[in-house]
Amino acid sequence: MDVFIHDMAKSCTLYIGNLSFYTTEEQVHQFFSKCGSIKRIVMGLDRHRKTPCGFCFVEYEARGGALQAKKLLDGMKLDERFVRVDLDPWFKDGRQFGRGRSGGQVRDEFRDDYDAGRGGWGGASQEKLDQFRETKQRANYL
């Protein structure tokens, strides 16, 4: 049997994505505890600044709670954002840190719009803004 399928079949942990950077652990607990008893919540942190970066892991005491939460809460609104809920078979300490170049989420680096709940401009827009400023500065000094 494939290791991924085996681990997924017994996972009690969920990955929660698209959280606001301002969503608290207490809000996550209140939202997800409706589906079962929660063992622990691990909030995702920016690798460099150690500030929230829009995801977390919720580990349930029993698999039934995780399955119910996946079924009922995926796509629901938490703190004015539609959250993504997926089973996560391989959580271990250290995965709570963002993996993007900036230390946050990789998805945010491709976002090119303004999103106040996710800390402002996405990484793609920030790069465009930086390039524009650099071009403008060069034009002023040439």
Question: Can you put this structure into words, describing what you see?
Answer:
This protein has 142 residues and is an alpha+beta fold. It has helices at residues 3-10, 25-32, 63-73, 106-110, 123-141, and strands at residues 13-17, 38-45, 52-60, 77-78, 81-82, 84-87, 114-115, 120-121. The strands form three sheets. The chain has a four-stranded antiparallel β-sheet. Strands 4-5 form a two-stranded antiparallel ribbon. The radius of gyration is 18 Å and the shape is elongated. The model has no long low-confidence stretch (mean pLDDT 78).
Mean pLDDT, rounded to whole units? 78
What share of the residues does DSSP label as strand, in percent? 15-25%
Unreliable stretches (pLDDT < 50, length at least 5) are none
What fraction, in percent, of the residue positions are helical? Answer: 25-40%
Oligomer: single chain
Globally, the shape reads elongated
Q: What is the string of helix and strand elements?
A: HEHEEHEEEHEEH
Spatial strand order of the main sheet:
2-3-1-6
* Class from secondary-structure proportions: alpha+beta
Q: Which value, in Å, is the CA radius of gyration?
A: 18 Å
Q: How many E strands?
A: 8
The DSSP helix count reads: 5
* Beginning-to-end CA distance, first to last residue: 65 Å
Main sheet: strands, sense, barrel: 4 strands, antiparallel
